[in-house]
């Protein structure tokens, strides 16, 4: 990849000091799959079912009732507010340590409805190789996701080699308190920040504090992150994955309710963003299996 | 230091994997000095004066009028609200890049009222050595400060070797927008989060995502960070600097309005926090001068 050569070759006019080699990656649809629905949404639904015996009132109360009736597609294709209500009900009031255990347990047992694979094996092999390549060239790699920051942190280090402090995401408010004499962090059932669209550059500003030189995404939710990354001086790289391989993975773009890729695709040429054509560019999709 | 040996020696029962070697440092009074007033407050006052020609209304409007009359001590010893009002007026509506330039220019020209030193030379030599020692032992070092995150980021990398993405602090809201056709991050005149007291563990949770094993501070504002860091399983280290050297630096503790050290000092023994007695423990204070 000539961009990486340019920025890492001493004496090159585009040389970038290692401290400035910041690379940001969207997660859903960029590092792991996101069809037929965001994997975190499946976690929420399973969690609702798990908690339902303690909440008999949910049987009559939306959006919980729909989930418990076994019609999760209705929720998932519905509005964002329902999803947020589910997330608040399931994430809130746990300590961060308790939440980590809940997510870790789920990741161990849950399987993708179509492939039967654990979700952490539905990561893209070429992207894992790209992460490793950039790190070998002294890039610092970050996730910048619309998904929940604490959810992603549970598996990002083992799965992608990205430590918790290099994960940026949507977050709840959290507070410090003493529980049973021990200091803990408690996740509150209140949304604090949505790391999507214009929230992505704002999240990067907050967590990283400088502009990346490399950004990868797959949907219009990455538009502002790509634009902000690539519109400054010096060598910059913007990458968009186009999911167009229905046989080996999934095919969706302009009309998809999940991972809609429309304006970012249209503007890719004038913005000099590289569009990866998964069907023809990727030999392998997932590490453990070459088809869905 | 036996703590570091314990956690870095393979086979030791307290061995900690390098990825978990997170060390957090307060800034004001821990990495650099904070007397007679927080250095960032001096920045705010200078900035008010610099901006005042464009704001004739400030001559009649508090807290600006007091600053412009040349009575900054009154403001600085006053309530936190006045300081926040000043900060909002001076930080708000700049892009992050513009703000960086303003801070960088100020740091170049401003001098400490008593020592005549640039503020970035009023850093503690023994703490610089501690940072370097911990990093050599594969600790990742972070600043966790009640001061402004974007203010500290301007000098933390050059001064302490701590990159922007490892700085946690008090922050304004910020938003992404297109200005003159270019994507920028704008700092809004609205406080988003105060990284002090119970805010410090909450800030660590947000930015780092795991509990540190080492924490250093100098005031009651670090109490919760120290408590949270040291109250979990395994080897942990909490350090408190006690400023008691009036000749070479400053002496202040239980009754100080800035950097008040009272409860954290009282509880240090039962919490097993190490209290550093600056007067007798430190041979050198500042890198370029051994006395104030
Ligand atoms: Ca995506
Ligand atoms: Ca302090």
TrEMBL record, chains A, B:
GO terms for molecular function: hydrolase activity. Pfam families: HAD. SUPFAM superfamilies: HAD-like (SSF56784). Keywords: Hydrolase. This is Haloacid dehalogenase-like hydrolase. It comes from the Bacteria.
